[in-house]
Design goal:
Order of helices and strands: EHEEEEEH
Number of domains: 1
Largest sheet: 4 strands, mixed
CATH superfamily: tt1808, chain A
CATH architecture: Alpha-Beta Complex
Strand content: 35-45%
CATH class: Alpha Beta
Radius of gyration: 13 Å
Strand order of the largest sheet: 1-2-3-4
Distance between the termini: 38 Å
Helix content: 10-25%
Length: 88
Amino acid sequence: MSGAPDLAVEVLSPSTHRRDEVTKLRLYENFGVDEYWIVDITRSTVRVYRRSEEKLFLINELFAEKKDSLTTPLLPELAIPLEVIFED
């Protein structure tokens, strides 16, 4: 089976920051990815983009310091606490 993944995850780095947040976002949007997570290790955050119609929209920005958890309707049983992802 071929086609776009349902979920794409990118971890930002200083050298790919703009490419991940702009270029890849539009690329994933154009190819039909349903959800895109951008993990920012310097800020301990995850931005969640979800498809509505033909576009990916920012639906949430999650913060480790607020004890937020990553969830997605694509995997209903999944709940990942950000403090676990970003622990030292």
